[in-house]
Amino acid sequence: MMDSNAALDRCRELVDLARSMGADAADAAARASSSESVSVRLGALEEVERSESEEIGLRVFVGRRSASINTSDFAPDGLKLLAQRAVEMARLAPEDPYGGLAPRDALFSGEPLDLDLSDRSEPSPADLREAALATEDAARAVDGVTNSNGGSASYSRSVFALATSNGFARGHSGGSHTLSASVVAGEGGDKQTDYAYRTQRHRSDLPDPAEIGREAGERAVRKVGPGSIPSRKMPVVFDPRVGSGVLGHLLGAIAGPSIARKASFLVGRETEQHFDETIRIAENPHRLRGLRSRHYDGEGVATVERALVEDGRITGWLTNVASAAQLGLGLTGHASRGGGGSPGIAVSNVVMEAGSQSVADLIADIEDGLFVTDLFGQGVNLVTGDYSRGASGLRIRNGELAGPVAEITIASTLPDMFRALVPADDLELVRGVDVPTFRIDGMSVAGQ
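^ thats the sequence. predicted structure below, dont judge the formating
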């Protein structure tokens, strides 16, 4: 796999080729990754897999017209042909009044901090096999587990580089290590499956495999013998594993392109109070060993720490060059870049800050409610804010977690959910978008 310096050299070369063929401006983004994983099932080796990929994408501008193209052919003739085709395509494209490169004064130009995104260790297949076995063994040892879908251990390395014709040229690399297990509990017609996993930049930061395996086993066992729940409005408590998705809907709704297209329920409502005034949602792109840490975005714009929600109010939209131009706003450092195509929007290490109550205190006064551990379906409309998802989890009776429930639908609107949201104090930074357990009163719950 190419290193960040080699990737950056290719990006510079491709930008120069595009300029020599008539492009007024251009940028090139290169990505490379390699990974190795070992999977076991029922104590036996099942699969050893290694994969590598490399690609580079070129975006060119001819006046106000642009085109994007990507390739994994790095031969000199291949890159030359790529640049030639991109310029030809741009000349035929419609004019875009909003596209372009980020201005120089917005580009990251400082000395980068060491974000410690890779421990540079490379576990052997034997090491990965041992970790996968230990994870699965712990899951299978949980009383009530009857079968296994397997355990796995993996590591990966990645490289990203970006060069623009107005002077930006940076590259960086990172890595990650992952442990996971998935097991089955129950017998006959009442079999339930669940999983647990953890990913960290450094192998030493991973929990003990036994902890991950035990979590997978306990999650599966507690789902056995599900009942239903009466259909009515009630308090719903979200496990952090699914709660992060609710926060994800907010992030999608404040993305500049969604606002520019008027495809967000928040259009025209940016000054309203959307959460309780105690709620703060923050982003830290410079967190050491963070899963989404970065100094600059997919257009080279410097990233900054910021509050996305402060005192319960949204602080602004997340922009890239095109959406900022369309909305008449500044750049926020949220552009994302794949191998080709126009930049999108991505966040870096977002956290809903913890509340003051324990989970036990959060549910203590709930006479009858639902603790959601799994969500299904795609019933979220970011244009209207309507929310309806299939769910399963545990019933809450008299302030305690009771038996499992399944085949449930929960519904509300995202604005109503945000206003009613109350977080617990159990925040863990494990996913890149993290929330504590939180409670939302007044959701419509429909059982069988």
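The CA atoms of residues 183 and 250 lie 32 Å apart.
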